[in-house]
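Quick look at the format.
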Amino acid sequence: MNPLHERALQLTRREFLGRSGTGLGLAALSGLLGRGGLLAAPATTGGQPRLAGLPHVAPKAKRAIYLFQNGAPTHVDLFDYKPKLQALHGQPVPDSYIGGKRFSTMTGKADGKLLLAPVEPFHQRGQSGAWVSEFLPHTAQIVDDLCFVKSLHTDAVNHAPGISLMLSGAQIPGRPTLGAWLTYGLGSDTENLPAFVVMTSVSKGTSCGQIFYDFYWGSGFLPSRYQGVKFRGSGEPVLYLGDPDGLSRSTRRAMLDDLAELNELKLREHGDPEIATRIAQYEMAFRMQTSVPELADLSREPQSVLDLYGPSVKEQGTFAYNCLMARRLIERGVRCVQVMHAGWDQHNSLTTELYNQCRDTDQPSAGLVADLKQRGLLDDTLVVWGGEFGRTPFIQGNLDDRKRWGRDHHPYAFTSWLAGGGVKPGFTYGETDDLGMNVLRDPVHVHDFQATILHLLGIDHERLTYRFQGRDFRLTDVHGHVVKPLLA
């Protein structure tokens, strides 16, 4: 039998449709890319490649560290000082502040809820005069390096959708996250570590049941090579870095070379980007066998640097340890580090667990900024601190039971801060009303915040897109404006 006929007979329906679709798609794609001048080889950064044409604008920052506080820190207890909230403590929230607003099912209707004054006193700090609570004495010492955004607001009222919206631009999981977009567009400056690294921590003894879902650092419909690589909080940061007993380095290298050849054959045959991901990740794992042990070796860090991050800095899995590792990672060319700390969901534990959260995160956050500054890295490293929304100015619980005071989810106003990477230091943007309930001036939506972060890294948020299922997607969906007053 003619070999071509035999091959046609053996071809499955699925394979036939897949190959036909690929051929037509590649022909169309070739024409579109050719007209757009996008068939040029991607530019390189010395490590993983970046897209041609990037950066779109002169970048202020080369890399980003996102200190994400899962569970929603309470803005009215930490940063957004409201004397009237203190004065009206224990009185019902006026109807004019809550009319038509949606709160979580734990609050339901906010009518008649009692206002709760800040748990700890506020003071103005630094030359900028920024208001910071006594909960955060270390952050208070660096306010002149920080840019506060006090007028953030979001569309989500529950944690997972809120975190997903903040990190991926959509409440429903499945979109690429900020770190994935950055590594897709900008690549990285290292061949020996992932471009996007994630670390998680939880305060000891917390009752806040925050879960770290993988989609918080996922690549969505982008090839999976752009998803975040999660470093573990105990033992080896990455599993299976060591070779099995009896397997030499040279033997392992030969095995990977042979495996790469097989995968290259499949890649040429099918054009599946996940095969390219597989090849790249095998090679990355081989190089990480050397780079990760060196990364995790803190023995050469001076005691003066360790002291910046606090007493738990050498305890793997703590927020302090992860902040120091974030600095070491970006020094080695990693593009984006996402440090996530859970436990801020204080529905009935403001007077207990809020102290724990601030104790575990305040000094490491401030120490990271100070460490970057003294090394000359803060100017081109963007540090972002914040959560998915704020907490209600009114109480959740019984006002007479102080040990059980709490605040519910609040999407209408919250605070984040940024440092370095081209933002104005010692600057506060936006304002809420006199109870911290609603944005009064200069609102900043989540998509505006994302657009600004991308801009600082040299990316026009409207131009970094990826075509999926017939539509061009971007981090900011179809929204967002750069908040130019934040830019230095």
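Next, a different chain entirely:
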Amino acid sequence: MATHRTTPAPGATGLRLEPDLPICQTDLPLDWYQREFKPYAEEYLALPDRKPGTVLAWLDGYMGPALDHFGETLLLVAHFYMGGEIVKLVERYGGAVADSYQLALAASRHPEKKVIVESAVHFMAESIAILAREDQAVWITNPKAGCTMEMLAKDYMVLPVAEQLIERYGERLCVVAYMNTSGRLKALAGRTGGAVCTSSNAAKVVRWALDQGKLVFFVPDQHLGRNTAARLGIDQSEVVALRDPQALRGGFKLDDTAAQGGLAALDRARMILWGSFCGVHTVFEPRHVRYWKERGWRVLVHPESRLEVVQAADGSGSTNFLWDAVLHAPPGSRLAIGTEGHFVRNARELGRQRGVEVVHLTEIPEPGYSAGGCGCATMSRNDPPHLAGMLDLLRRGTPPDANRVFAGDSVDERTGARERLDTAERRQLITEARAALERMIEITETPQD
């Protein structure tokens, strides 16, 4: 992962900036910027346009000095889903764009990088911090950047229910925490002998747990949980989702109202699912899939989509799976992709370079179909002023403490308020959460039959 580059670079994903391609999706209102970032936002908003030539010339004035200052000790990272073309900007300045699994390993596999700046969501930055060494500092360009799924699975919601499940099922219960969770829930996975998973390795991790005779408590995405169970051949009658976390926004009593079928259904289950979901991926319907398939398109979706959508599609998989499908599709292929809108727009550009036509699954030009190809609003809170400001403030030695990410930090995505653990609590959390992450790595990278 080279980091010292001030000229455009092709990067890992093969994206390139076109002269007339707008850099920014939408501007954040000025009052959404932290005090320290407002001067950069004001300069950015005063630019005459959002064309690359204009935005990049402005960005170079901040990024160049910062890259020269930090040299090879700096690592810039972003996730595939970032909006506002931020992935292209991170790549331009020598950073890496990857999925959540690769991002989690960014610090641990690059010990020479001492300053890690992440343009993605908070739980991803926290995962990097959990695996980082003590001499590596992790920063996020916008601490308010979050995930709707994770917001429905905060520790104060999940932990009271998990405690009741542990009391009922004892050591048989094993927590599998999706990467889209806080470090506090990853630590819960570690305490119960469980593991973290991503959308690409969920089946491997869940199979590993079931092979040990464990009852899996899958947190937080019920749809990834159901799709993983189906992939493993588990009867859906043995997969039970807990009640909708939106109902109480907190822990609830584990009784016959906790899930459809009550406690008897939970006792028969092989997988118990937290009831969270991704607002972006649950807009997809089987009729969207049928529309494109009937017209000869290959349909691929992310496994955070509903089970019936995944079953109707031609294939499903992680962001890496979807990106590789475009990257390796023969010229003339036509792909309808069901996932986050920014990702599909970037995939469409990659497809144009290769003679592959790409559409978003909901982009159906007929009456009766509502468009749902928007990007994830909470993930898209990283933009050029945040990137420029973060690097410039770090270079000056005055970065806001709110942007430093430690394991165990809990951030309110609406207000930016943060709850930070004391040193002893943080060390305990790191021990438990790191165990769950390292278990995932071991399971993922060990060859299986």
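Residues 227 and 311 are 9 Å apart (CA to CA).

See the schema section for token definitions.
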